[in-house]
Amino acid sequence: MDPWLITFITAGDPSPSNTLDYMIALEKNSDIIELGLPFSDPMADGPTIQKANVRALKAGTKVKDVFSIVKEFRDHSEKPVVLMTYYNLIYVKGVDNFVKEAKNCGINGMIVVDLPVEESSDYLKACEKYGMGTVFLAAPNTPEDRLKQIDKVSSIFVYLVSLYGTTGARDKIPETAFNLIKRAKSICKKPVCVGFGVSKKEHVKELVNAGADGVVVGSAIVKIIEKYRENAAEKLEEFTKELREGLKESLTQFR
Amino acid sequence: MKFGEFGGQFVPEVLIPPLKELEREYNRLKKDDSFIRELDYYLKVYAGRPTPLYFAENLTKHTAGAKIYLKREDLLHSGAHKINNTLGQALLAKHMGKSRLIAETGAGQHGVATAIAGALFGLKTEVYMGSEDVERQKPNVFRMKLLGADVIPVESGSRTLKDAINEALRDWVATFEYTHYLIGSVVGPHPYPTIVRDFQSVIGKEVKKQILEVEESLPDCIVACVGGGSNAIGIFHPFIEDKSVKLVGVEAAGKGIETGKHSASICAGKKGVLHGMLSYFLQDEDGQIATTHSVAAGLDYPGVGPEHAWLKEINRAEYVSVTDDEALKAFSLLSKLEGIIPALESAHAIAYAVKLAKEMSKDEIIVVNLSGRGDKDLEIVMKLLGGY
Asked: Is the CB of residue B51 less than 8 Å from the CB of residue B80?
């Protein structure tokens, strides 16, 4: 398979009325759009995405708004949308009910940051029932037996967390990422995509050359929205185009 | 691992191995005689255990009802029960070979108790504290610094206790190899609610022995305040199987449950998942966590420990709430009648116990956990009661 570029924004940042445009701007150069549901307590996120969550919630973003934005996006694009969320937002609506609604509005898969495999039986049941795709995370310290389990319950891809820390743009991709890719590739049957700290074209190239089946870029994109607020669409398109080039260059290197 | 459906380990994957390590090490050390002896030693000669169980005769006369006993956790070093847990966990951290402690704190009580334990055992200590709280609780910030700890103001979210917990977890994700996260209440992912409960159960064990000595019977009722719920679980736990003993947890009704300005997670919250656990939380219909209010900073938390959620579910404990005003009245009452200035948190328990005692007969017994002393609250009480 050709490697994937997965691009992340927080839904409702800076306001729900911008999100559709921003998804369309990302869509042209992305293989998957990862849409973050804003949450009051995003404990796995670094400062950049934390602030995006605050902006989105201040703008009054509700879960139902995010669902209708995805529905509208489906009039423009068939690109897969994966929802990134913390478990409480699913739990309070009722797991079955939430997954059903998400599927109905055109969401293809879900990533639940704080839901390890052990706690996921209700969630997996609902995902299977409604044909919702699943993505679980693995970290540099995830042992082999857990990697196997994570691979088994992830239907779209396995999300490899590159480092010990929270989300956020970094200058360099740490060694932990390359070790994890190596381990994961030898164990996982599903595609493995690397996120956390991936923020430039060079990173994309490096990771794909190291064997990643995809990369997730989040904070670097959210920073553009932080800077340009309501007028970020053009810049988003420009930046993702550049990331795409990184992907293409790595492919030519391969061949 | 769970309390009924409550508790669990709702954390990012990276934290699973360190939580497993903690569980394994704790299970090993809690059966290790030298660890037990060492902890007992520090609890006795450093913290001041056992604490007295005091018959509050004047308060009892005043209410003209059931006999009221006070478990004097306020007499411990640092002025509150928090130190039972910080000594236990810091010693655990030391035995696990960790060189650094991190903690969250709201009002600063747990931060101070952690800084004390860090100083005692030679562990570098950093305390996360919401920047709002840093402003409101300057004396405690200074105390922590004096004790050699670093206080890190948290600017994210609502800049209070829940955000300090988020920030401590973010730190731990990157530093667990050499850092122990010393959680201050019976909250967080498994095994924390169990570890903290075990270290706090010394309170209830002592009460059982002491009340049998004086009254030759178990109490009819035990009352304790509940924020995260560590002092309450500590005194409840050894009595859970004694079905004749009624257990009452008192939450903070703040300015009144109907105003929305409170922190009564069990009385007015819904089930949810935060800080690694399934429990009751104050939140909106989408699951966004609410900001809370209580005059007692130590009760100002939007969730509650999972074991309390379970005790409520199986009807073993009852949970009620007391407003800021009622707590302030109890604060003054106990000061005047008994010469004991209670912490505003503990004043919630006193307020409810007084109400309850009036409805009970004179041969019945209530034990109240006086979890902390009120010196830390003088400034806020002076402001609220004016010209006091």
From this structure: no
Q: Are B160 and B106 in contact (CB under 8 A)?
A: yes
pLDDT tens by residue, B16-45: 999 999 999 999 999 999 999 999 999 999
Taking one residue from A and the other from B, the number of pairs with CB-CB distance under 8 angstroms is: 111
Sheet with B270-274, strands from edge to edge, namely B2-3, B6-10, B276-281, B270-274
What pLDDT score was predicted for residue B387? Answer: 58
* Chain A residues within 8 A of B278 when measuring between CB atoms: 91
Phi/psi for B368 (5° steps) reads -110, 135
Would you list the domain boundaries of chain A? 4-254
The pLDDT tens digits for A75-94 are: 999 999 999 999 999 999 99
Distance (Å, whole) CA B229 – CA A212 = 45
Compare CB distances from B273 to A91, A118, A166 and report the shortest one's residue: A91
Chain B within 8 Å of A165 (Cβ-Cβ)?
A: yes
Cβ–Cβ under 8 Å, residues B11 and B19: yes
The Cα of A102 is separated from the nearest Cα of chain B by a number of Å equal to 14
CA–CA distance, A13 with B262 (Å, rounded to integer): 30
Task: Tell me the average pLDDT across A44-59.
Answer: 97
Per-residue burial over B125-135, b if 16 or more Cβ lie within 10 Å, else e, is: bbbbbbbbbbe
The predicted-structure confidence for A128-184, as pLDDT tens digits, reads as follows 999 999 999 999 999 999 999 999 999 999 999 999 999 999 999 999 999 999 999
Its CATH class, for the domain covering A4-254, is alpha beta
Taking the C-alpha atoms of residue B344 and residue B324, their distance in angstroms, rounded to an integer, is: 9
Q: Which of B16, B274, B283 sits opposite A116 (nearest CB)?
A: B16
Task: Look up the pTM and report it.
Answer: 0.97
- Tell me the β-bridge partners of B62: none
CB-based burial of residue B152 (10 Å sphere; 0-12 exposed, 13-18 middle, 19+ buried)?
A: middle
Write b or e for each residue in B87-113: b if 16 or more Cβ atoms lie within 10 A of its Cβ, otherwise e: bbbbbbbbbeebebbbbbbbbbbbbbb
Interface of B with A in 149-168 (CB under 8 A): 156-158, 162-163, 166
The complex scores an ipTM of: 0.97
Return the HEC string of B288-313.
Answer: CECCCCCCCHHHCCCECCHHHHHHHH
Q: How many Å is the Cα radius of gyration of chain B?
A: 19
pLDDT-derived band at B92 (thresholds 50, 70, 90) equals very high
